[in-house]
Amino acid sequence: MDARTRDVVAVLVALAPGEVTTYGDVAATAGHPRQQRLVGRILSLGGTGVVPELPWWRVVNAAGRLVPGHEREQAALLRAEGVAVSDRRVVDAPVGRFSRRPVDRRSETPGRSAP
DNA sequence: CGTATGACAACAA
DNA sequence: ATTGTTGCCATAC
User: Fold this and answer.
1) Which residue segment(s) compose the domain that A85 sits in?
2) pTM for this predicted structure
3) At how many degrees (to 10) do helices A36-45 and A3-13 cross?
4) Total domains, chain A
5) Is residue A2's beta carbon less than 7 angstroms from any atom in nucleic acid strand C?
């Protein structure tokens, strides 16, 4: 794998449970802004031998949308880590960037439905 | 080499 | 909120 791939993989494997990020943020954090598509491509290669197994479910698009085609599984994996998911999208997602924001559920904002 | 495609993103209408 | 357009970058043909 080339240098860019290495950088992106490094960021991905560093994602902690309960931590959700976006393609764009992973790319930027890896030092390769505007290479979101590369991130998606690498994630799709996870575990195929060219790159190690990656926590693909902790990456969603900028709108908090889950991966097309893997929504059920992704939702299950995320919820298992304490991430709220609703209707194919991550709940605590302030549309834009919720990068590196370890889902903080302070004292149970009873709202999320009533902020 | 030109064109199309894709686990994306930002913006206009 | 949804649908199109544009911009981006790596690949596949």
Assistant:
1) 3-102
2) 0.80
3) 70
4) 1
5) yes
User: Residue closest to C8, CA→C1'?
Assistant: A34
Structure token pair of residue A18: 């309960």
Residue A38 sits in a domain whose CATH number is: 1.10.10.10
Contact A98, A90 (CB under 8 A): yes
- DSSP letter, residue A92: T
Distance in Å from B4's C1' to A92's CA comes to: 35
Residue A34: CB less than 7 A from any atom in strand C: yes
How would you write the pLDDT of chain A (115 residues) with one tens digit per residue? 888 999 999 999 999 898 899 999 999 899 998 899 999 999 988 777 778 889 999 999 988 899 988 999 999 999 999 888 988 888 876 544 444 444 333 222 233 223 2
Instruction: Identify the residue whose tokens are 């999320």.
Output: A112
Distances (CA, A) of A86 to A51, A83, A105, A112: 30, 10, 16, 11
